[in-house]
């Protein structure tokens, strides 16, 4: 698994950032190591020193971004806040990341496509989403245990929340017809929390 690449090796980060641009521009099937060489402005030997093939580059790219997001997600879950505020922070984090760099979300669409026909990418994404789902399960479980949330199917609820966060990627593919990704997320967040929070807790200020 790729660790904090920016601190560990700036050159490796340079390669992975270049590969992100390439997979969005050309897709996996149409991209070549030579494209990554050109985009990164490094030598072919430098690329192959770190990555033995195109597949290894792109599998490492998934790890790279997962690790960049994980530190913040862990902080959200560990903070001394109500479960509903943790969910709000979670949704807000992803929409803020989308607004700063939608390229990452476009790349994830390509990785989804790859997972449908390549076992290694399928295994990688299953690993990623299992960890993400576990974080959401932890938040929902906390809400139920503290009495803030209704007694519900925790895993199913967490899966529904994850799917709605993934809906941000829709905005990288289709015309939103005047709706912004932030409007979508804020509305979905309100809908989800309205269905989760007990009536006795509604109207309370969650900080």
Q: Which blocks of ≥5 consecutive residues have pLDDT under 50? A: none
Major β-sheet annotation: none
The best one-word shape is elongated
Distance between the termini: 35 Å
| Percent range for β-strand residues | under 5%
> How many beta-strand segments?
0
SS class: mainly alpha
Query: Mean pLDDT, as a whole number?
Result: 89
The SSE string, one letter per element, is HHHHHHHHHH
Provide the helix percentage.
over 70%
Number of helices: 10
CA gyration radius, whole angstroms: 19 Å
Explain the overall architecture.
It is a single chain. This protein is an all-alpha fold and 207 residues long. It has helices at residues 5-8, 10-30, 33-40, 44-50, 54-78, 83-100, 102-115, 119-145, 154-166, 181-196. Helix 5 packs antiparallel against helix 6 (83-100). The longest helix has 27 residues, at 119-145. The model has no long low-confidence stretch (mean pLDDT 89).
Outline the secondary-structure elements.
Blueprint: H1 5-8, H2 10-30, H3 33-40, H4 44-50, H5 54-78, H6 83-100, H7 102-115, H8 119-145, H9 154-166, H10 181-196
Helix pairs in contact: 2-3, 2-5, 2-7, 5-6, 5-8, 6-7, 6-8, 6-10, 7-8, 8-9
Tags for this model:
single chain, mainly alpha, 207 residues
In short:
It contains 10 helices and no strands. The chain has helices at 5-8, 10-30, 33-40, 44-50, 54-78, 83-100, 102-115, 119-145, 154-166, 181-196.
